[in-house]
Inverse folding.
C-alpha cells in the first residue's frame, strides 16, 4: 500500500496477530520498522533481501507483543531503537508480561533514543511525525505520514484499545483519539496494531466506541 511518497507494508505476526509495519521510501532505499512482535524474525529474513538501509526501529508502546523481537531486529538491522520515555520506564515489567503469555522474556534491550510528541522521524526524503497518545498505555505513540497513521493499540477498525492493563486510562484514551487522531483528515488510512486497515473517516462515523466523543 502507498502512503503519500512512503510505501507501507504490513506483516501479521505472533499468537496475538500483531501487525509489524515496514515504512519505505523506495527512491531513497530506506525502511523504518515498527513494532517487531512475537515470532517476527521471519519478516527480517524476507525484507533484508531488499537493498534498504534501516535507520530506525520504532515502538508504538512497550507491551510484550509489540516489542518481543526488538533485540533481534536492532542487532541485525543496525537501526536505532526508539520509544517514548514512558514506554521505556515500563520495560522492567516485561518479565511479568511474558509470564501472562506463558513465555520466556525476550532478549534484553534498552532504547537507543526517546521519542517526543511532535518529533519528526526521517524516512528517506520523507518524515513520520510522532504524536503521544496515552490511554492504552502511558507511553503510547502513533506515527503520522503524508496520508496515513500507524495507530498502535489505541484505535482499531470498529474498536479502540483496551484500558484494563496497568497504566491504561479510558478517559486519556478517548482524549488522545479525539484530539490527536480525529483531527486528521477523514481520508487518512489507519494502520492499527492488530486487525485490518481502516480510515479516520470510517471510524469517525461508524466506530461504536467513539459515540461519546463525536
Amino acid at each position: 500500500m502507498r502512503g503519500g511518497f512512503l510505501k507501507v507494508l504490513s506483516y501479521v505476526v505472533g499468537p496475538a496477530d500483531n501487525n509489524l509495519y515496514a515504512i519505505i521510501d523506495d527512491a531513497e532505499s530506506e525502511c523504518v520498522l515498527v513494532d517487531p512482535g512475537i515470532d517476527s524474525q521471519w519478516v527480517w529474513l524476507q525484507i533484508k533481501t531488499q537493498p534498504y538501509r534501516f535507520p530506525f526501529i520504532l515502538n508504538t508502546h512497550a507491551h510484550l507483543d509489540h516489542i518481543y523481537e526488538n533485540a533481534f531486529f536492532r542487532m541485525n538491522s543496525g537501526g536505532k531503537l526508539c520509544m517514548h520515555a514512558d514506554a521505556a520506564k515500563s520495560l522492567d515489567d516485561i518479565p511479568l508480561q511474558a509470564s501472562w503469555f506463558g513465555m520466556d522474556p525476550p532478549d534484553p534491550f534498552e532504547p537507543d533514543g526517546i521519542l517526543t510528541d511532535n518529533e519528526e522521524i526521517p524516512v528517506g526524503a520523507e518524515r513520520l511525525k510522532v504524536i503521544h497518545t496515552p490511554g492504552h498505555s502511558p507511553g503510547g505513540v502513533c506515527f503520522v505520514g503524508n496520508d496515513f497513521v500507524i495507530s498502535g493499540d489505541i484505535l482499531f477498525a470498529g474498536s479502540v484499545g483496551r484500558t484494563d492493563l496497568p497504566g491504561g486510562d479510558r478517559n486519556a484514551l478517548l482524549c488522545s483519539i479525539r484530539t490527536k487522531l480525529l483531527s486528521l483528515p477523514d481520508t487518512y488510512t489507519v494502520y492499527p496494531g492488530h486487525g485490518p486497515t481502516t480510515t479516520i473517516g470510517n471510524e469517525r462515523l461508524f466506530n461504536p466506541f467513539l459515540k461519546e466523543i463525536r
The helical segments are 41-47, 64-67, 70-77, 85-89, 94-101, 170-181, 200-206. The domain at 2-213 is CATH 3.60.15.10 (Metallo-beta-lactamase; Chain A).
